[in-house]
Amino acid sequence: PGDGFPAPWQVWNGAFRDDARRYLRGDEVAPSLLTRRFASSPAAVDFVTCHDGFTLLDLVSYGEKHNAENGEASRDGSSFNLSSNHGVEGESGDSAIRELRDRQVRNALTLLLLSHGTPMLLAGDELGRTQRGNNNAWCQDNALSWIDWQATGGQGDIVRRLIALRREIARLSFAEWSEIAPFQLAGTTHSGSRPALLLTRDDAGGRILLVALNPGLTAARFPLPRAAAGAPWRLAFDSFAEGVPGVSAPGEWPQFAAETSEIEVQPRSIRILLG
After folding, report:
1. Global pTM?
2. pLDDT classification of 184: cutoffs 50, 70, 90
3. Coil, helix or strand at residue 168
4. pLDDT by residue (tens digit) across 186-196?
5. Are 121 and 159 in contact (CB under 8 A)?
C-alpha cells in the first residue's frame, strides 16, 4: 500500500509476536527491546498467536510442527515457531509440566493484554484449544480445527481479569518505562541470558504501575520503591499464583505495606503491582 494503510487500518506487529515468544521460551531478549515491545504504539495490532500457526497452548506444548495429517509430509506450515514443549513433546500427564505450560499461557496473555498496542486474541486460546501441534490446519474441517465452545479448564477467567486490569490502568501513561535491576541476594541465582527486570510507569497523578517479570529458572527479588504518599502496594496480578483474586472484589486483593522494601517473583512468572 505504498506509504502505509489509510486510517483506520492498523498493522500487525510481528516483532511483538516474535520477541514475546522468545521471552516466553527463555531466549535472551534485551530489556530495552522488551520494553519497546511492551510500550508499542496503539496503531499496532499486538499478538502472540493468530489463525496461521500454533494455538497458544500448542506454542508451549510442541517444539516443532506436526502436520503429517495435512498430506504434505509436514513440508507445509512454517518451521519458524519460536515454541517450546517444556520437557515433553505434546500432551503430558506430568502435573509439573502441565502447570508450567498453563503459567506460560498466563504469561503470554499478560504480555499481550497489557501491551500498549491493540491486542488481538486468537479465538479458542482462552479455552485451551489445541491442534495437536498442527500449525497449518486450514485444510482440516474437523475437530482438529474446530472450536469446542463447551471446553472447560481454559484461561477464560484470566482473560477477563486482565482485560479489567487493562481498563483500570488505561489512564496511566505508557510512555515512560524504566528498568530496575533485580537484587542479587545470597542463595538467589539468575540465568545470565534471561535477566529478570522491572518495568514501571507513572502518570501525572503519581500513580505507579510495577510489572516485575522473571523469565529465569529461579526466584528473583526486586527493590520495591515506596508507594505514593506512603500508601500500600496492591497486588493486581500474579501469573504464578493458582488463584488470582477476582476483579469484582478489588478490596480483597493482597497488599504490601508501604515500608516493604522488596518483592519476590517466582520462576517464569509475572507480578503486577499498583501503588
Report:
1. 0.89
2. very low
3. helix
4. 344 444 445 67
5. yes
